Amino acid sequence: MSRLVVVSLNAAVDQTVQVADFRLEAVNRVVSSRDDAGGKGVNVASFLAHVGHEVVLTGLLGDANAALFARHFAAAGITDACVRVPGATRTNLKIIDTLSGAVTDLNYPGLSVGPDALDAVKARLEERASGLEILVLSGSLPRGLPETTYAELTAWGHHRGALVVLDASGAALAAALDAGPDLIKPNRAELEELLGVPLPTAQAVAAAAQRLRARGVGRVVVSMGAEGAVVCDPEGVFLVEPPSVAVVSTVGAGDAMVAGFVHAQGLGMGGEAAARLATGFSLGALGEIGPRLPALARIEALAAQVSVGVLAV
Known about the structure:
By secondary structure, the protein is α/β, with parallel strands linked by helices.
């Protein structure tokens, strides 16, 4: 397995509640509720640990509710190198209507930090720099950190010989593109926001992904929900089409795809094989409540049902 570090600068407590026939402006009765240590980076680290990777996680956690994360890291086998800062890590509330399957998200803004907090994370990274092979940068930035944060960390990772995987959006993603991350994974809406144009078809998505590859991004993966994903890498442009599966929760599905590509990288996979396996990870997350994955055998069985074809652009 690769020596890898995941950076999570804006973690979250993922609170998932199930409500039958959820309605606005009405009293709703909660059927079940659970709190999970989450946020994109934490999810990626958890999924990689689940399939056997030794994962170091660094980033920022609010000291007021860090105990939930510490318990999760210990149970998952994740090495906790996170910096504690004053305040509480944000809560993201996801309401799942058990009748319709509709999902409503309420995401809190998160911590507000200064440059000293980022300096502390960089110091933790320096402690883990020796032999680093893969650096995963995942999630939004907390208030107070500059938009260039991921560009700086991408350059840091490359300077130390690491492959850099970036899953971000908005200004933080835009600022990092010229640093040449080795893999980015926006969804279609995030890519449309980044480029300022609608992308109504898979061919339009692929053409946009190719433009980003031309700017120096190694592999561009664009998730499109039930329509699958477009993968643009040195081996070609692929349309990845998943089988129809029952969706229990969408929490962490995109993060699972990122973890799947990292796992595939560790196995030496590329192109179609990596796309198929990463989609199996995402499909596995859709069948679980909260940010979780099924057993690796189930993930591989789902991956075997994924169709990957060359996309003409």
